[in-house]
Amino acid sequence: MAAARSLLSEDQFLCSICLDVFTDPVTIPCGHNFCKSCITEHWDTNVQCECPLCKEQCEKKPDLRVNTVLSEMAAQFKQSVLQETSSSSSEEQHTNTGEVLCDFCIETKMRAQKSCLDCLVSYCKTHLEPHQRLPALKRHTLINPVENLEERMCKKHKKPLELFCKTDQVCVCRFCTESEHKLHRIISLQEEYKEKKAELGKTEDEVQKMIQEKRQKIEEIKQSVTLSKEEADQETTTSVEVYTALIQSVERSLAKVLDMIEAKHKTTEKQAEGFIKELEEEISELSKRSTELGQLSHNEDHLQFLQKFMSLKTAPSTKDWTKVRVHLSYEGILRTPLAQLEKMLSTKLRVLCADAEIKKDKQYSVNVTLDPETAHPKLILSQDGKQVYHGDVCQTVEDSPKRITRYFGVLGKQSFSSGRFYYEVEVEGKTDWVLGVARESIHRKIPFHSCPQNGFWTVSLKDGLEYRALDDSDPIHLCLSSKPQRVGVFVDYEEGLVCFYDVDASALIFSFTGCNFTEKLYPIFSPRKNNAGANSTPLIICPVH
Questions:
Q1: What is the 3-state secondary structure (H, E, C) of 97-135?
Q2: Predicted pLDDT of residue 342
Q3: Is the pTM of this model over 0.85?
């Protein structure tokens, strides 16, 4: 066979269309030979039937039959090339796990240097030599050694998958682009690889961000548990201080309060544990996803990357944690049982309780200033926005929907739609005033009853003697042991609680409970008429000590 090869030129066995050794060679009328599939496809894509070499035309497409003699010679030529390449093996042998091995090594397999997409075979350095020497084999497509070469070939056309169809999102060969994908958007594998690589990187970043957010949420929940424990300890201490100052008859009530506090904390702790467990499970799933994406992102093999990318599972569904909070509030736990004991408790108990509550509520002090855009035209505000009094004469001010015009009121600039807040107002020297909070949607242009139903939670002093809480029904007359000089206002939005304190006497003036807050709350102030100077002293927003 070697002698036969020496008498014949290797080019005599090459098809001039595909530049490879003949497969099912046919002879056309002019005498030139081609692969049957090559000349058929050539004529299918051209109007005239002519020879690709000499350009001789045929009136009609001839009936092609395989040249059996040339076919046998081409097959023998292929076999002789393969036998020659497998006859020598002198290179150092490798058997490392995970390496692509030479398909031609017979005994101990050696590490492959290249894989041929035309032969669908991987070659070591020795067996690769014919591809570097023979003109027919030099035209083959060599790539870095890979396994499963068959998967890199088009199953229909038996050609390398070297392009990507954006329309159908599949890898295709060059013949696919001239047939079923002819009018589709086609790009190179490298272009699609870059796009998908960038997309994968973005997805991986998003997964990492989700993991980080969930870890932060775990820390937030853990911190909430810590704060819950601190508040529970504080409530316990306060309760012990109050109840130990009383006689044996209130010990049963003290135990009840402690149990309620402990139960509330355990509920909070259990809720937090459930959230943490759920987050950790999501992190575990996302970590698996991140590992999978990380492994894929390091795959530099374009085809294998795209094939595995297409088979990626969708990201695991996760819960939206942005609005999840561990609810903390111990307000009211102490007030409720104490209210039940009000008739039998002494003045000392009321002082002890109010003093403890004021100290606790002062932790939520806020800096409140008056909003001049809401002030009645007869009200005079200080430059720093901390004082207001009635000035008898209407000022020239711009009217707006925000301005109060039918009663002597002004709102604070600050609004609150969650949490707790506390501020203090000096009322010393005044005979009439109104203090409290109001919702944003209160009527500002018409007179009406200032009660919770209309969006007001206030207490007032009238004629220097009568203290009242303005309720939905008739005003509640308040019996106070001393005349407040400074009033503290505390609001717990979530608990629906508004408390008024006599700061100097450490006494509770009044509290609205069970309020249903659904919109922003604003501090509201009314110095009322100055009564010919008798009530000219301003209301003063004071710093909290």
A1: CCCCECCCCCCCCCECCEEECCCCEEECHHHHHHHHHCH
A2: 66
A3: no
